[in-house]
Design a protein that fits this description.
The structure holds three protein chains of three kinds.
Chain A lengths: L2 H4 L10 H40 L9 H5 L2 E9 L2 E6 H17 L8 E11 L2 H32 L4 H15 L2 H15 L6 H26 L2 H9 L4 H29 L3 H4 L17 H5 L6 H10 L8 H32 L3
Helix pairs in contact in A: 2-14, 5-8, 5-10, 6-8, 7-8, 8-10, 9-10, 10-14, 13-14
Chain B lengths: L10 H7 L8 E12 L2 E12 L3 E5 L6 H8 L9 E10 L2 E2 L7 H7 E4 L10 H10 L6 H14 L3 H4 L12 H14 L4 E5 L7 H14 L4 E5 L3 H7 L2 E6 L2 E7 H6 L4 H7 L5
Parallel strand pairs in B: 3-8, 3-9, 6-7, 7-8
Antiparallel strand pairs in B: 1-2, 1-4, 4-5, 9-10
Helix pairs in contact in B: 4-5, 4-7, 5-7, 7-8
Chain C lengths: L1 H12 L14 E2 L2 E2 H13 L1 H17 L1 H15 L2 H35 L4 H7 L1 H12 L2 H36 L3 H6 L7 H10 L1 H20 L9 H19 L1 H10 L8 H9 L4 E2 L7 E2 L2 H32 L2 H14 L4 H21 L17 H25 L3 H9 L4 H29 L3 H6 L23 H8 L8 H30 L5
Antiparallel strand pairs in C: 1-2, 3-4
The chains are: A mainly alpha, B alpha/beta, C mainly alpha.
């Protein structure tokens, strides 16, 4: 044992070279897994951004493709005429055909013949009605979900005493979070569309989506309320405030930023769901914009075009080729941007509110 | 036995107290140790020699750095991000444990540790103790059985648990759990055992048992105990080191520290005037 | 200072209030104070989650429950019109067709053997195989009499079914007219009841003929088999396959008496119980709609399809997700952690329809191209034939479920008490040993429940499978082993999304889709329940 003076040998030197080697190999494997995930995500994102950018942005002022954002989808006509290839939207195509026919008639030639003609639905024009529809759906469902969810969270965190009822409610929330989106779609269809007779409408979509985000909002709300220090409540109650006054004046303002951020992030994800609105709110195509209604009540009971559903339609119902790529990738990118925008808005909102209510 | 020259006037009185009684061999030698938690200095210029097969107690108020120093001795601080020894060295048996060719894993096999809160693994009593051997690749049943029994006997726990070795270690009482942790540390065959406030979460009876055990253990092991309780330090240690604000104030044999401390701060502390 | 205090205190005390009032009369509404009303309001809102869950159940059952009755009628007609009788015989024909296909496979193998290994020209090879060809032609022709019988009888049965259906339509029409109060018009709707016994008699009368045909068929096959050409001189292995073929054919012939017995015992009037309708759904191996012969609503092909894509997805997602969780939690530097965690959570915000589109536009083709490269042909199922299949969908589903698995698994690892890690390190365990032996086992319940919830997310995902799984309604051919993973499938979620828009409201098909929805709902509840049970039961004490 008397190694200190006699032997310079180090009793603590590393043994088990295989062990070290195995550890290093496994850790690099874990690292590879991690970066593989990030790489896959980046690849998908990159592909859509890269290919969609051509449709959405333009090199000239105002740097975005205004047609794409301000028009409704149209049928695309692809044809060759007098040796030149043409790609025209439906309206342009009719105009072109009319002028060419007129010109030919004036020159005494037979009516013009277009060769290699191809008509592809939804591949020209823009996606304005889809964007509008999606925004309406998100705004409406967000309002409903926030009201219901925050009220529910307030009860669970401020009023409820732990007991069988609360346990059942919590269980219901957890289970509701796991219900597949398509089942929500079926439920919305069965209840709102058929039983309530709302037909395929904004209202039906709102409620279906709202119920779907409910667990997210409740969980977010409870967590934010729990994060408010106890002292705030006790301080307020000690000054003689009622419970409701305490919640309204002392607790909610502090919890609100957290509630909003977490729920809006959840809602951004729900905005991306297609299945629940397929049978409850979305139309494949609708000529009128949502505000072009004769009566106010019609506004709530009209179906809308929605971006996620439009992406589903253009990616499954029309072929994949160079003519359709424009609208497919363009819609996908706009949708991604929209979701990112909602998320970003929530983060900015939080920063604002945090500044106002800081503790 | 040569120490660096004193840097501050305060070290002067330590100089005289630091040498342990003659017949005992020095096992651990700490020289000029500065330790940082990111930018915060936690240990300041520590010089200390710890004798072999004796119990040394580290005392001092909370946050004085005694646990930090203890955790330096088996490099547990490596697990915390942003910690660093900026100056000085720790030598065990003459080997600087922070040398690049020292493997902290091999070091920890020689320098066992028992924590403040007993932390048995969520496994059976048997597996808790066999764990240290299994990670060294020892899986022979007979060898494991032997070591488990020896370690449990060593920790004075054998008679209480021999009939339920395969029940969960979490089912034991607090004091038993702590002795299980001691047994677990013994199984690896260390030379030094570090104890970080081993009794702070235990009732007086369990504490008494652990203290008895400490007396037993010092015949074969070098023990270093961090403790908050001065009575405990007085009862079971041979030497005591008093720390304050990251500095070593005084180190001497326990009787001296408690009966006639040379430093007024030490006296104030041991007489309960602060801390 | 004391002077002012003395001045203010008496002034407030002199107000009209009683000395120390701590009671106050509150306004009450329905016997509740305002605060209690508010509490009741919030409490009511808290029940919303529960109510929604109940409503989902109620409305799914409201639309779906009638399915079983309708399916029972559907199956009754199947029996009464004699379709069931004919399908018994048809099974014989199907089995024979399968055998013929094996024979063709055998010929292809022999041909390849001859041209590639023995380097014969195709013409020579065909010459060598002339005996086999002759045999297979005669073998496949042997079924002709049976086939003729089936098609003759089939026409009769189909006619009966059509008549029955016309009657059904008329009945509904009359009921509708009566409901509208147009009794005169209703009276004009004449319904001729179908006399099944009489109608079926011609079919049943063919039993002796069938027996005769069948005996000839069996004898014919037997003679053919004894005269089957030997393939031993081409390749001994092929001869073994030929023997196997013979064995299977004999096994097939052995089932003939059983069929005859079934036919003899068949009774059109035997009622179809409701349980048969239920079991036809749960164990049905066909999902066949809008067929001229008979519609089947069996969930097995959809369920296996869902399961198959989920398996692919989890095979990819579990190692990646759990590996990444361990890496981020135990190995990565804090800087890396701050970077990776939000990045992976960002992936969860990808809309699934966009991923589905990516699958159609890029990934499907990419995988197929990759599978066609020569050096990966050893992978079972490669090269992939269909662009859209379980593998394509599974890859994308993996991407969807990784954030779920990662986040929850990381949480579970994070919840392992630090003391355990320190104790293990203090005993001289390396980082890897600590992770493998202490931290992962301690977090295992959390990790398993993370995987379960990831599974729930995958099996409930709609758009990706709808777009990328290939939508072929068939039970994947598991006999081909792992190659089954590259077959196109249809799923429970996909079928609802695809067919819901096209079905008649209130029809049996419509109701069947709701029943699939119920199955999905119950499945998701079960998965959630299991995940929670695991978490609470095996949680370690801290």
């Amino acid at each position: 044992m008397d190694t200190a003076k006699n032997a310079p040998e180090n009793p603590f030197r590393s043994r088990g070279g295989a062990l070290v080697w195995r550890e290093r190999a496994l850790f690099s494997l874990f690292r590879a897994a991690t970066y593989c995930i990030l790489l896959c995500g980046a690849l998908v994102l990159g592909n859509i951004v890269f290919k969609g950018a051509g449709t959405v942005f333009s090199s000239r002022f105002p740097f975005v493709n205004t047609t794409f954002f301000t028009e409704a989808p149209e049928t695309l006509h692809v044809f060759e005429y007098e040796g030149a290839a043409h790609r025209l939207g439906d309206r342009d195509y009719r105009a072109f055909r009319a002028t060419e026919t007129a010109r030919a008639a004036a020159e005494g030639r037979p009516a013009p013949r277009f060769t290699n003609e191809q008509a592809i639905v939804y591949s020209a024009g823009g996606i304005l009605p889809c964007i509008v529809g999606t925004l309406l759906l998100v705004a409406g469902s967000m309002t409903i979900a926030l009201v219901l969810g925050v009220a529910s969270a307030i009860y669970l965190s401020e009023y409820a005493k732990s007991g069988p009822v609360v346990r059942v409610i919590r269980l219901a929330i957890l289970n509701l979070a796991g219900v597949p989106s398509i089942v929500f779609g079926l439920f919305g269809f069965g209840m709102f569309v058929i039983f309530f007779g709302w037909n395929v409408s904004l209202m039906a979509g709102w409620f279906t989506l709202a119920f779907m985000v409910l667990p997210v909002v409740i969980t977010a709300g409870e967590e934010s309320l729990k994060a408010v220090p106890r002292g705030f409540r006790e301080g307020s109650l000690a000054l003689g405030a009622t419970k409701w006054q305490t919640i309204r004046k002392a607790v909610l303002p502090c919890a609100l930023p957290g509630i909003l951020t977490s729920s809006i992030l959840g809602i951004a994800r729900v905005a991306g769901e297609t299945a629940p609105i397929m049978f409850t709110a979305a139309y494949v195509v609708r000529d009128k914009l949502p505000w072009q209604v004769s009566e106010i009540s019609d506004f709530f009971f009209q179906g809308v075009m929605a971006l996620p559903y439009h992406i589903y339609v253009v990616s499954s119902k029309i072929p994949q080729n160079e003519h359709t790529e424009r609208v497919q990738y363009g819609s996908a990118l706009v949708f991604l941007l929209l979701v990112a925008l909602i998320a970003a808005a929530s983060i900015i909102l939080r920063a604002r509110l945090r500044r106002a209510y800081k503790w | 036995m040569t120490l660096p020259p004193p840097r501050t006037p305060k070290i002067e009185n330590r100089e005289s107290k630091i040498a342990p009684p003659a017949p005992v061999r020095t096992l651990i030698e700490i020289t000029g140790l500065d330790f940082y938690y990111s930018e915060k200095k936690a240990l300041d210029d520590i010089h200390l020699r710890l004798p072999e097969k004796r119990v040394t107690a580290f005392i001092g108020p909370s946050g004085c750095g005694k646990s930090t120093l203890l955790r330096c001795l088996n490099r547990m601080n490596d697990l915390i991000d942003g910690t660093a020894i900026r100056r000085g060295s720790i030598k065990i048996n003459g080997i600087d444990i922070n040398r690049p060719d020292v493997d902290p894993i091999e070091l920890r096999k020689r320098v066992g540790m028992v924590f403040q809160k007993s932390n048995p693994f969520p496994k059976s009593i048997y597996e808790n103790i066999a764990y240290g051997l299994r990670i060294q690749g020892i899986n022979t049943k007979s060898r494991l059985d032997e070591v488990v029994e020896r370690s449990l006997r060593g920790a004075a726990l054998w008679d209480e648990v021999k009939d339920r070795l395969h029940e969960s270690g979490l089912g034991l009482s607090g004091g038993q759990q702590q002795r299980l942790c001691i047994a677990r540390a013994l199984a690896v065959g260390p030379e030094i055992i570090l104890m970080d406030e081993p009794c702070s979460a235990l009732d007086p009876i369990a504490t008494a048992k652990i203290e008895e055990l400490i007396h037993e253990l010092k015949r074969r092991y070098t023990l270093i105990i961090v403790t908050h309780s001065m009575q405990q330090a007085a009862r079971c240690s041979d030497f005591t080191a008093f720390f304050y604000l990251g500095r070593l104030i005084e180190h001497a044999d326990t009787r001296t520290i408690f009966m006639s401390p040379s430093n007024p701060q030490t006296e104030a502390y041991v007489s309960g005037r602060f801390g | 200072m004391p002077a002012t205090a003395e001045n203010t205190i008496p002034s407030s005390a002199t107000t009209a209030r009683p000395a120390f009032a701590i009671t106050r009369k509150r306004t009450r509404f329905l016997g509740l104070t305002l605060d209690e009303c508010i509490q009741a309001f919030f409490g009511g809102n808290a029940l919303v989650a529960l109510i929604v869950l109940a409503l989902i159940m109620v409305f799914l059952f409201r639309e779906g429950a009638a399915f079983f009755g309708q399916n029972q009628r559907n199956l009754t007609v199947y029996r009464q019109a004699g379709l069931e009788y004919i399908d018994h015989i048809r099974r014989q024909e199907t089995a024979h067709t399968a055998l013929t296909r094996r024979l063709y496979d055998l010929r292809l193998a022999a041909f390849t053997q001859l041209t590639q290994n023995q380097r014969l020209s195709p013409a020579d090879a065909n010459a060598r195989l002339a005996a086999l060809d002759d045999f297979s032609v005669r073998f496949s022709d042997a079924v002709m009499p049976i086939r003729g019988l089936v098609s003759d009888l089939g026409e009769v049965a189909a006619a009966i079914k059509t008549r029955f259906n016309v009657n059904e339509d008329k009945t509904t029409q009359r009921a509708q007219l009566l409901a509208e109060g147009r009794a005169a018009e209703a009276a004009q709707v004449v319904i001729e009841p179908v006399d099944f016994a009489a109608e079926l008699q011609p079919i049943l009368d063919t039993l002796p003929l069938y027996r005769e045909t069948n005996a000839a068929f069996a004898a014919g096959l037997e003679t053919l088999l004894t005269a089957a050409p030997s393939l031993a001189q081409i390749e001994p292995g092929l001869d073994a396959r030929m023997d196997e073929f013979k064995r299977q054919t004999r096994a097939c012939i052995a089932t003939f008496p059983e069929i005859e017995r079934k036919l003899a015992a068949w009774d059109y009037a035997q009622p179809v119980p409701l349980t048969a309708s239920l079991s036809a759904f749960i164990f049905g191996r066909d999902w066949l709609t809008a067929s001229f012969w008979q519609d089947w609503y069996g969930i097995i092909p959809l369920f296996t399809g869902s399961l198959l894509v989920s398996i692919v997805a989890l095979l990819i997602a579990v190692p990646l997700g759990v590996g990444a969780a361990i890496y981020v939690n135990q190995v990565a530097t804090p800087r890396e952690q701050r970077l990776i965690k939000p990045a992976i959570e960002f992936i969860s915000a990808f809309p699934s329809v966009v991923l589905g589109f990516f699958g159609i536009a890029v990934l499907g083709e990419l995988l197929r191209r990759f599978s066609q490269a020569g050096w990966v042909h050893w992978v079972p199922g490669f090269p992939i034939i269909e662009r859209l299949n379980a593998l394509t969908a599974g890859c994308l589903l993996a991407l969807i479920s990784i954030p779920t698995i990662f986040t929850l698994a990381e949480d579970a690892l994070n919840n392992v008490p630090r003391a355990l890690k320190e104790a293990s390190c203090a005993l001289g365990a390396s980082r890897l040993q600590t992770i493998v032996k202490i931290i992962t086992p301690a977090a295992l319940s959390g990790i398993i429940s993370a995987i379960l919830l990831g599974f729930g997310r995958v099996i409930g995902e709609t758009m990706i499978v709808l777009l990328c799984a290939g939508n072929r309604i068939a039970i994947p051919d598991f006999t081909s082993g792992p190659a089954a993973l590259t077959q196109p499938v249809h799923t429970m979620t996909g079928i609802i999304a695809q067919e819901m828009g096209e079905v008649v409201r209130g029809g049996i098909h419509y109701r069947a889709l709701f029943v699939v929805g119920i199955a999905l709902f119950l499945l998701s509840l079960a998965i959630n329940y299991a995940a929670q049970k695991i978490i609470t039961r095996y949680r370690i004490a801290e």
